[in-house]
Design brief:
Elements: H1 9-17, H2 23-41, E1 44-47, H3 49-65, E2 76-80, H4 107-114, E3 118-123, E4 135-136, E5 140-141, H5 157-164, E6 170-175, H6 181-187, E7 190-193, E8 212-217, H7 220-230, H8 248-251, E9 260-263, H9 274-286, E10 293-296, H10 305-326, H11 333-343, H12 347-367, E11 373-377, H13 409-412, E12 417-424, E13 430-436, H14 442-455
Helix pairs in contact: 2-3, 10-11, 10-12
Length: about 475
């Protein structure tokens, strides 16, 4: 029965609708796989089994009555532990919030329920999403199914690890600086953050000008299905996009011939490992065979790391100040040190960076007047030790984010961006290609990603779940 879990969400939804499999059977298979894998990957904060069976039974009854079914009817799905699921724990990966229970559903969760998705549990995150890896003081270390000694990346660590391990086909993650794209790159998945506000965020994030909610999946079409379900205006999010939601699934079948694509190996400042760059360069070059016009553009902008750090940690630091001052011992020491540095900036220094951020947005907007899409490596490295906060040959203890050189700029600009599997290293570890789109440009990202996936399918590749040595 576990083999059925490797089918796509689109296929599983059809099997449910045709009565070839019941939602409760599908849920049972998902929970059994979760129990098999969890001891190795440590991907869940809480399993919401009772809620899940109630939802599955409701969908099953609707199927038997011949009622119209929702877009996610009967599909098991996980939700990252930075997103509110009413009645379930909302711990943010922190011991300071270990017993917190959400009083409401986030808009994305409301829409998953309305579409008859079956939420099986809350997945792990680094503490308050403040690291690009999968460890937190509350839940410990989440591991990469492709090599259990490696990190799956973060902060949407548990979502990525569990989808890669075959627990569910889809999951909800968040992305404030790359937290969907980083783990998708390191675990061989497709994930996308839409344009800022395309998927509404509520309750308000600790990084309210950077945070996105988005889909993570083994296939582009599955992510498109979920994206179309969760996107759309909600008045509780002041940044919510008040425009019709495109038909993302329909984009998956469209031609990409003639798309103008900028290929940037470094954006002008990144330091990718040679093997990673070689894999991504070949993937970017292959877009020409799909009919795209690909142009090498080395320098796009200067490294905006200082702008990102000021914005991300000013918000997180302000929200966490009571814990930082009164219960510091509960926090991840690396997170606490970074918060200290961010909170030491003056109002003048902060607003100087805010205005530089607006300059960056304008520059990137002008860039997209010449190109339809930008592609880069998602990360400068493959997966590294699960216990580490950063790759030893690229990162540094002075900054938790200076190694995610390709992802954080597009949280500052608010533009949509995705990661898609580009290939594997000689050691068998996944590498990601980042696709960045223009203003409200998720549809063209998904169109290119689907064409790339059709030319180089990966969804039936299964990680070895190698044992720790």
């Amino acid at each position: 029965m576990s083999e059925i879990l490797w089918k796509s969400a689109v296929e599983l939804r059809e099997l449910v609708a045709s009565k070839a499999i019941s939602p409760t059977e599908l849920l049972r298979a998902s929970l059994e796989r979760l129990k098999e894998a969890e001891g190795d990957i440590n991907a869940f904060v809480e399993v919401t089994e009772d809620q899940a069976y109630a939802a599955a039974q409701s969908v099953e009854a609707a199927v038997m009555r011949g009622e119209p079914l929702g877009a996610l009817a009967g599909l098991p799905i996980s939700v990252k532990d930075l997103i509110a699921v009413k009645g379930a724990r909302l711990t943010f990966g922190s011991r300071a919030m270990a017993e917190n229970v959400a009083a409401v559903d986030a808009p994305s969760v409301e829409r998953v329920r309305r579409a008859q998705g079956v939420i099986i549990g809350k997945t792990t995150t680094s503490e308050f999403g403040c690291k690009g890896v999968g460890s937190s003081p509350l839940t410990g270390i989440t591991r990469n199914p492709w090599d259990l000694s490696k990190t799956p990346g973060g902060s949407s660590a548990g979502a990525a690890a569990s989808i890669a391990a075959g627990v569910t086909s889809i999951g909800l993650g968040t992305d404030g600086g790359g937290s969907i794209r980083i783990p998708c790159a390191l675990t061989g998945l497709f994930g996308i953050k839409g344009h800022f506000g395309r998927v509404p965020v509520f309750p308000t994030s600790a990084t309210p000008t950077l945070a996105h909610v988005g889909p993570m999946a083994r296939t582009v079409r599955d992510a498109a299905l979920l994206m179309g379900t969760i996107a759309g205006f909600d008045a509780r999010d002041p940044a919510a996009v008040a425009q019709p939601v495109p038909d993302y699934l329909a984009e998956c079948g469209k031609s990409v011939r003639g798309l103008r694509i900028a290929w940037s190996p470094t954006l002008g400042y990144a330091r990718p490992k040679p093997e990673v760059l070689d894999i991504v360069a070949k993937a970017a070059g292959s877009l020409q065979s799909l009919g795209c016009e690909v142009e090498l553009v080395d320098d796009v902008f200067e490294d905006p790391l200082e702008l990102f750090m000021a914005e991300f940690f000013a918000g997180a630091g302000t929200r966490l100040r009571p814990v930082l001052e009164n219960r510091r011992e509960l926090l991840d020491p690396a997170v606490a040190r970074t918060l200290d540095m961010a909170m030491s900036q003056s109002m003048k220094d902060y607003y100087e960076k805010v205005f530089k951020r607006y300059d960056l947005r304008l520059k990137v907007c002008e860039f997209f007047s010449r190109f339809d899409l930008l592609v880069t490596p998602t990360l400068p490295t493959e997966a590294f030790a699960a216990e580490a906060d950063f790759p030893p040959d690229i990162g540094s203890p002075d900054n938790l984010f200076d190694w995610i050189q390709y992802t954080y700029p597009f949280n500052l600009t608010g533009l949509p961006a995705a990661s898609i599997p580009a290939g594997f290293t000689a050691a068998g570890l996944p590498v990601g290609l980042q696709i960045v789109g223009p203003h409200l440009g998720e549809a063209v990202i998904i169109r290119l990603a689907a064409a790339f996936e059709a030319a180089r399918p990966w969804d039936q590749l299964k990680p070895p779940m190698t044992s720790l040595s």
